[in-house]
Amino acid sequence: MNQDTICALATASGVGAIGVIRVSGNQAFELVSKIFEGKDLTQEKSHTVHYGYIVDKIEENPTNHQLTTINHQPSTEIIDEVMVAVFRAPRTFTAEDSVEISFHGSPHIAKKILEVLIKNGCRMAKAGEFTMRAFMNGRIDLSQAESIADLIASDNEASRKVALNQLKGGISQEISLLRTDLLNFTSLIELELDFAEEDVEFADRSALNQLLDKIEIKLTSLIDSFQYGNAIKNGTAVAIIGKPNAGKSTLLNTLLKEERAIVSNIAGTTRDTIEEVLHIKGHAFRLIDTAGLRETADEIEAIGVQKAKEKVEQAEVLVYLADASQTDYSEDFEMLKSLVRKDLKLIVCLTQTDKVEAKVEIEAKQFEKIQQNFEKEIDFPFVFIPISAKENQNVQDLKDELSAFVESLKSEGDQVVITNQRHYESLRKSLQAVQQVKEAVYSQITTELLAYELRNALEALGEISGEFTNDEVLGNIFSKFCIGK
Question: Cα angle at 199 between 196 and 204, to 5 degrees?
Answer without folding.
Answer: 100
